[in-house]
Amino acid sequence: MNDTQPVSREGIPAATVVIFRNGEDGQPPELLMTIRSKTMVFAGGMAVFPGGKVDPQDYTLGEQFGGELDVDEAAHQIAVIRETLEETGLAIGLSGEIDAERAHAARARLLELGTFAPVLEEFGWTPDLSQLTPFARWFPRNERIPRVYDTRFYLANLGTGAVDVEADLSENTHLFWTTAQGALNAAAKGDIKVIFPTRRNLERLAQFTSYDEARAHAVALPVRIVSPHIEEREGRPWLCIGEDHGYPVTGEPLDNVTRG
User: Fold this and answer.
1) Of the residues 50, 163, 192, 210, which has the maximum number of CB atoms within 10 A of its CB?
2) CA angle 91, 92, 96 (to 5 degrees)
3) Bridge-partner residues for 156, per DSSP?
4) Is 80 exceeded by the pLDDT of residue 102?
5) Beta-strand pair 251-253/133-138
6) Distance CA 202, CA 183 (A)
7) Residue 30: which of 158, 167, 219, 199 has the closest Cα?
8) What is the pLDDT of residue 94?
């Protein structure tokens, strides 16, 4: 099936974010990753970027704060902001008085209330979606897997990144900063496990020496749906993606693929 064909299978709306911070001493930027709890149905035990499902409340806030964005896109961006605060304690994509202490308190309130709108009101914060840059959209509509997520990826930047992060210990067991290449190296050694989309995105991100470079690449390349497909190469089945999505590696033998 061609990647540009209309979506023919309904997916669960989801959003995730690649959070950058400056590397040390001229080194490549670092990215925040989380290890999913092994008890999670999707990607249990895998290293992924922060994110999660889009909730109904996200559409309400998206309509309120989305500006010129369509409500669906704005809702995905709101979901990224909410999930990041819940999973990591980082307050990204927000304007207002923000420091580590207030972010910690806001996270506790979000976990207590289970809804984002009153937390925004209580802390005097407003979503600032200009801080997020659309990067990719993965929808494995061609694969026979039990849960199909239609996931939008975004980029965000912490700059110096002099902040503390803490896993929520329900969906995630560990948070860590690493370069994109460092994550790929860790996966190659078996220190972490990554699913097919995460590996492809890490390979793409490893091309860039700064957040600004990654963002410029994302802005220049319109986001289109990436739907992996199986094709035969030299007598072996491969899981592949289109050649025109900006990814330096577009496939690997199906036997090697780790799935969620």
Assistant:
1) 50
2) 70
3) 19
4) yes
5) unpaired
6) 7
7) 158
8) 95
